[in-house]
Amino acid sequence: MSNQRIVLITGASSGVGQSAAGLLSERGYRVFGTSRHPTASDPMPAVEMLPLDVRDDDSARACIQAPGPAGYTGNATCVMKG
Description:
It is a single chain. By secondary structure, the chain is of the alpha/beta class. It contains two helices and four strands, in the order βαββαβ. It has helices at residues 15-26, 57-65; strands at residues 6-10, 30-35, 47-51, 72-75. The chain has a four-stranded parallel beta sheet with strand order 3-2-1-4, covered by helices on one side. The longest helix has 12 residues, at 15-26.
């Protein structure tokens, strides 16, 4: 059994999520990033992108089952009001 830490980050195709995914992969985490359209974003070394639409229950179930047990989950979604 591996002792490598696993993290799942939503919104990893851009912005804060992409930055967090890159940083954690550099620090030795096994990183799974999610996006509604994972093939549309630039590939990141050591980050496995998975499809996820958080508004769709079937999409969420498929995503959670894909990587195995995640020790950490990060949600990079935020709402900004002007």
